[in-house]
């Protein structure tokens, strides 16, 4: 009986070892498959995005309420902002009303109503108007001026870097962009140009956010083609231009 129990115990231990080996093999294969899935998912995640962005469009626009307005997360507010901008453009551009004239007419009407109401309240048996005391805080204006100064200084630094002649590519991009803006400015006035930019900010981001999976592949193809054309232009033209400041020759 003792020998039979020893044999059964040995058989059970042998079966346990085989089961452990099989389980270890299954776990290793499952871990391998999981790692393969992770690698494949990471490869799929590396999709070309316009301007090399890695964040959603909402985060790129700064997040918060301004991004919600630009992406039409609250359709009533976005439509109201766009309607007000359109009304201002129609009022000043199509109806040819001037800003200074409008401000003066509003002030005349407002002051006349308040003055007449303040003097005629005893006759119409109504309480006199309560004119609020308007006091603007200094802190928001100081913050705005500080941020504006910082951006202006950055712009001057960028212009200095471009004018130093070290980066020919950036120089050509800025020159071509400025030339295009000057052409557009000759077609329309500043108010119309501002309105076009405003409408574009309220339409282009939301369309891109909705159809980014279709736009990004087309943008990738266009970028590849532009790189090819730039390589040809660089080889034939830009590479022949001397880089850096030229040394002045001594006159005899």
From TrEMBL:
Q: What is this protein called?
A: Reticulon-like protein
Keywords, sorted A to Z: Endoplasmic reticulum, Membrane, Transmembrane, Transmembrane helix
Against InterPro entries, the record matches this protein to:
Reticulon, Reticulon-like
Question: Per the UniProt record, which residue ranges are transmembrane?
Answer: 77-95, 102-120, 171-198
User: Upper taxonomic classification of the species?
Assistant: Eukaryota, Viridiplantae, Streptophyta, Embryophyta, Tracheophyta
UniProt GO BP: response to bacterium
Cite the Reticulon domain residue spans from the record: 66-252
Give the bilayer topology.
Answer: Multi-pass membrane protein
Q: Which domain of life is it from?
A: Eukaryota
Subcellular location as annotated? Endoplasmic reticulum membrane
Q: Pfam families this protein is in?
A: Reticulon
